[in-house]
Write a structure and sequence with these properties.
Largest sheet: 7 strands, mixed
CATH architecture: 3-Layer(aba) Sandwich
Shape: globular
Order of helices and strands: HHHEHEHEHEHEHHEE
Number of domains: 1
Radius of gyration: 17 Å
Number of helices: 9
Helix content: 40-55%
CATH superfamily: Vaccinia Virus protein VP39
Structural class: alpha/beta
Bound molecules: S-adenosylmethionine
Number of strands: 7
CATH class: Alpha Beta
């Protein structure tokens, strides 16, 4: 029986295939970033200076990283479980003249997080919904976030839950082991705040929430004099 980590990697590799990567990168080149990527990019820019390193977890073909490199970030580390998406991200970095400042790292972030550098900005755009264990994914991600943490996730609405259920049922019927999840937003926010971050801005689409958090200033130490 495969270990749960291998099962996740195999399912993800199948889901985020070469064909899908090619269509995602073609769409990005033609139409620019998708709605959640735009919201996270703009939310990060509005929350303060965008500089230093972005650690883009589940960064896919790299759209959010490239958007942030164009706005002041000096280095991007894109971690993803899909080799096909990372190959597309590398090609795009070359095409944009960003290869020297873009690294791609394959694997399940939760399993390899101790080998990864911190990021001034840490991002997860439409990633938490692809991973069963939102607690370890968020906790490990937050431990790498120096200044800001931004992520998008499906809203907990009946029609979002219905759609996810339908998609998962179709996958089960086609023997596709990949699954998506609507994790509880309030519980996720509790984890982010417990790591010392406060919400700077939140934007919605009909089905997604895009949240940007900043590291809360250290609490004032009471003066004993
Ligand atoms: C829906 S795609 C989103 C890609 C990109 N962030 C975007 O918004 O275009 C989800 C991505 O997250 C990656 N992913 C999910 N869980 C992951 C994990 N634990 N470690 C690394 N990558 C992960 C998948 O391989 C996939 O490329």
């Amino acid at each position: 029986m495969p270990c749960s980590c291998c099962a996740f990697l195999n399912a993800t590799e199948r889901q985020f295939s070469q064909k899908k990567a090619a269509s995602e990168i073609a769409r990005y080149r033609e139409k620019g970033p998708g709605p959640t990527t735009r919201l996270l990019r703009d939310g990060l820019v509005n929350a303060g200076p965008v500089d230093g390193t972005v650690l883009d977890i589940g960064g896919g073909v790299g759209a959010l990283s490239f958007e942030l490199l164009d706005r002041g970030v000096t280095r991007a580390v894109i971690v993803d479980a899909s080799p096909a998406y990372l190959a597309a991200a590398s090609d795009e970095a070359n095409r944009r003249g960003r290869a020297a400042v873009t690294s791609v790292v394959p694997g399940d972030f939760v399993m390899i997080s101790d080998q990864l550098p911190p990021g001034d900005l840490v991002t997860l755009d439409r990633v938490v919904c692809c991973y069963p264990g939102y607690q370890p994914l968020l906790t490990e991600s937050l431990q790498h976030a120096v200044h800001r943490f931004a992520y998008s996730y499906p809203r907990d609405r009946w029609f979002v839950r219905f759609r996810v259920w339908l998609e998962n049922t179709l996958r089960w019927w086609r023997s596709n082991p990949f699954r998506t999840f609507v994790h509880p937003p309030s519980e996720m926010q509790r984890i982010v705040e417990a790591a010392g971050f406060r919400l700077a801005n939140r934007r919605y689409t009909l089905t997604w929430s895009a949240d940007v958090f900043v590291k809360a200033a250290a609490a004032a130490i009471p003066n004993r004099d």
